[in-house]
Amino acid sequence: MERTFASSCPICYSENLDSILSIDFSKWWPQLFRFGTRPVYRCNNCDHRFMDTTSLSSEALSEQYDDSYVGFRPDPYFQDAIRREIIKNLIPRVAPPAKVLDVGCGNGDFLEAATEAGYSALGIDISAAAVAHCQQRGLHAEVMALTNLQTRDCFDLITMWDVVEHLPQPSAFIHQAFQLLRPGGYLLIKTPKVSQFTFKVVKAFPRLAGALLYTPDHIQFFSHSTFATLLQNTGFEQIDWLEDRNMRSHSPVRNLKKAVGHLIVSLVYRLGQDGNFCVMAQKPYV
Length: 286
Description:
Blueprint (H helix, E strand, L loop, with lengths): L16 E8 H4 L8 E7 L5 E3 L6 H5 L13 H15 L8 E5 L5 H8 L3 E6 L2 H9 L4 E3 L11 E7 L8 H11 E13 L2 H9 L4 H5 L6 E2 L2 H11 L3 E4 L14 H17 L2 E8 L4
Parallel strand pairs: 4-5, 4-7, 5-6, 7-8
Antiparallel strand pairs: 1-2, 2-3, 3-9, 8-11, 10-11
């Protein structure tokens, strides 16, 4: 019997859940009235935290990923960070001209860097505008969801830069990636990590949910342990945690109110040791 997102943890499928807070989007952000009040759950089995999106229509979720998202903003800092990542962590494990799939390719920054490094790189994205932008840059990209890609044992490396935190069903997504990798292939994922301390702050000050949790764009809130559980449950064995660091620049702060908000967010993240993590996981050879 297939489990539903509302009744079970999207990582370990346990039904032993506690509601740890509710976010009233209509109260704090009237433009997001269609989301209403959304509960955030904690799994008592694996400790994963996630926002319930069960009753939301697919249209409401899709509206959050329109063609104005931050991935289309030129970010030289991210472009430089990607190239350093390729040299330091990708080439030593998966040398060019290996076949690479970039899931959620956005504006093509990683595709371009991977192609320059000698990889045979394909990008896929559900945004037609993103794919068109990549194609205008001379990159190989297609409008496609990962779950619709049927090739098996095809890719040497699959990358997901800031993707999994948006997914209602990350386990199914990672399982599909596992199937698409050749034996011995690697999966690289970058995603935010969110501490218990941050949730306590949001519960005390609900208005900070958007700034601290990036809701409703982000609906999965990972820690190292919960993400390791996700990878291990899928079948990955060797898991390498890369250096924790921010890989993207921030928009300039143009007024005092935003400057104070940025300072508060930075303080909470520092106290909770939040940030981002990059992880590489290898599919077993047998």
